[in-house]
Each structure stands twice: as structure tokens, then as C-alpha cells.
Amino acid sequence: MGPTLYEFAGGEQAFPPFAAALHERCLADPELSHPFSHPDQNPQHVERLAAYLAEVMGGPPRYSAQCGGDQTGLVLMHSGNGDMSDLGRRFADCFMLAADDAGWPDDPRFRAALRAHIDWAVDEVALSHPRDTDVPAALPIPRWSWERPAPAAGADGRLTRAAPGR
Description:
With 166 residues, the chain is mainly alpha-helical.
């Protein structure tokens, strides 16, 4: 078995600079800057983002253990905001550029996996509930692999949403 995406990215030390670069890119984007600069944003946003991304890519479960994290809170934060498809695309583009900024490997297979996963995640998190906040409880944190995101399983173990087209 090969390395996880987390290990291939560089392990724990690779995620804080990546999260900081992603946050800076979003702040610099004229459309994304608003949601990334609102006054009630958690002051630990960048650290929490690093922990979340490390966990979904196969790292330790720090986000879910320390931030009270399941996926439901993240989806709720992005729900009921109307059509965010342009913001989602812009975020995914910033995500890929932040991988360059943070010095992540430019291996084509790794970058293709990152792109596929962030596109899936944008759909799952930011675009799944544009007009409502009817988000299922206890959605698990997804686990990304080289092949695809792991399907999300609810508290009862049944799939809630699988990766589209997979």
C-alpha cells in the first residue's frame, strides 16, 4: 500500500502553510474575500482548516477530536446561501494554486487527485443545500484517497451521498 495523500503532501508540517496560502488566495480574490473576511470568523480558522484538510487526506483525526467536528457543521455553515457555484469554482482554483504556493508535490497523479477531490468537496459542502439548511445530522468527515473520496456514511452506517459520477 502506498502513501496516503496526507503523507504524499508532506505530512503534518505541510498543512499549516497550505491552509495559510489558501486563505490568503481567497482573501485576494474579489469574490471570495467577503466570506473569508467576515468579522465573526473563527480566529483559529486557518489552523482548523489545516486540521480538517489533513484529516480528510488521511492524517490524524485532530479536526474531529478537537474542533467538535463532523461534516454536518461544515455543510451547515455553507448552506442556505443561494447559488454559490461561481464561488465554489473560484475556491477550487485557489485550492490548486495554494498547493503550488505551499510547495506541495507537482506529481500529475497527486494533482489530479487533489482536483477531483476539491471539486467533489465543493459540490458536497458548498453547493449541496443552496436554499435550505436541512442538513442531515452526524455526517462523517470524508476520507479522500488516491482514487476518490470515500462515500459519506451516516450515523446508521448507510451512505448519505456518494461521490458524483463514481
